[in-house]
Write a structure and sequence with these properties.
It contains 16 helices and eight strands. By secondary structure, it is an alpha/beta fold. Its EC number is 2.7.7.7.
């Protein structure tokens, strides 16, 4: 029954309490929520003998069996020690579901990931007030945290960075821990073979992390991953982002898809068209972007861009309903993507 403040989180992560039964990670940085959840799950699994088994659950997996979460926590795996269950808070995985589970002893260990929760939120209060449960705040990195992350990643590649380049890099990071780490890794891979990263390297390679965090929403919609798009959209709004900013980033993302698709239709090889994108596409996102190019024919991208432009105009003229307009847009784009996947031959 402990609330772990943002400045206490690193200490908590280095030495999780022995009596820990359940932990809630919440806040406006979804990448940090996910990263800390992953690290804690691995830490808890490793300190079991034999190592514990990690299982992930979300709302969709409880639709047919609402009692599955409790069942998994009460069971002991056949070839492992305790089971560590990572659950994503949502429609079903809520304070109402978790309260009776946490009020009684259970065999496994529970880690829950959530978005930005207010101090009076029932899920947050449940973890802060229940014995052997911990609620850990995850908010965007401060300058010192970003500097440490830069040093950590670049040292693993045996790279140094100029002072001006470091300052620019810091200014473009911090909105989301996972995206910040990915951008530094992308910069390091781009700079392999060099000893020093320059200001020009950062300008050419690293995008703005705040926009990149919103770009994940557009990416999920373009891939037809409706649930992910809606979850990330809700988290972005809870973190204070405006729906109009999300629409704008979505428009830029689909313009990028449109440019590459047009280049391919004009006879350019897909690999060459992807290499020409600036800033470069991170290698971990490259396959997903390539799939989207194959899935979205030019006419459908034209249609999508018209829909986005109409939504942007409506949101500007009636900002009172901008959240609703943006939500409908993302649902429509994800539906178009899913229809394209269903109609496409197996690749």
């Amino acid at each position: 029954m402990v609330a772990i403040k943002a400045h206490q989180a690193e200490s908590f992560m280095k030495s999780p309490p022995a009596q820990l039964a359940a932990a809630l990670f919440f806040g406006s940085d979804p990448g940090l929520v996910s990263e800390r959840s992953t690290v804690l799950a691995r830490t808890l699994a490793a300190r079991e003998n034999p190592p514990g088994e990690i299982l992930r659950l979300d709302d969709s997996e409880l639709d047919e069996d609402t009692g599955r979460l409790e069942t998994e926590l009460q069971m002991r795996p056949m070839f492992a020690s305790r089971r560590i269950v990572r659950a994503i808070a949502g429609r079903r995985i809520s304070a109402q579901l978790l309260k009776p589970i946490l009020s009684s002893p259970f065999e496994g260990l529970l880690i829950v990931e959530a978005g930005n929760l207010k101090t009076d939120d029932t899920l947050r209060a449940l973890f802060e007030k229940t014995e052997n449960c911990f609620a850990v705040a995850c908010y965007p990195d401060a300058a010192a945290d970003i500097d440490g992350l830069i040093a950590e990643v670049l040292s693993s590649f045996s790279l140094s960075i100029e002072g001006d380049a470091r300052a620019l890099l810091q200014s473009r990071l911090g909105a989301d821990r996972a995206l910040s780490r990915a951008e530094i890794e992308k910069l390091a891979l781009h700079s392999l073979g060099k000893q020093m990263i320059t200001l020009e390297d950062v300008e050419n390679v690293v995008g703005d992390a705040a926009d990149l965090a919103l770009e994940r929403i557009a990416e999920a919609a373009a891939e037809g991953r409706t649930a992910t798009a809606m979850t990330d959209f809700g988290r972005a709004l809870a973190a204070g982002e405006s729906a109009q900013a999300i629409i704008l980033v979505t428009q830029r993302y689909f313009l990028k898809l449109h440019k590459v698709r047009s280049d391919v239709d004009a006879g350019q090889r897909l690999d060459d068209a992807l290499k020409a994108v600036r800033p470069p596409i991170f290698f971990k996102q490259r396959d997903a972007f390539a799939r989207q190019i194959r899935n979205w024919p030019r006419p459908q991208l034209d249609q999508a861009l018209r829909r986005i432009a109409e939504t942007a105009k409506s949101a500007r003229l009636s900002s009172r309903y901008e959240d609703l307009y943006a939500e409908r847009l993302l649902l429509a784009l994800a539906s178009m993507a899913a229809a394209g996947l269903a109609a496409s031959p197996r690749r």
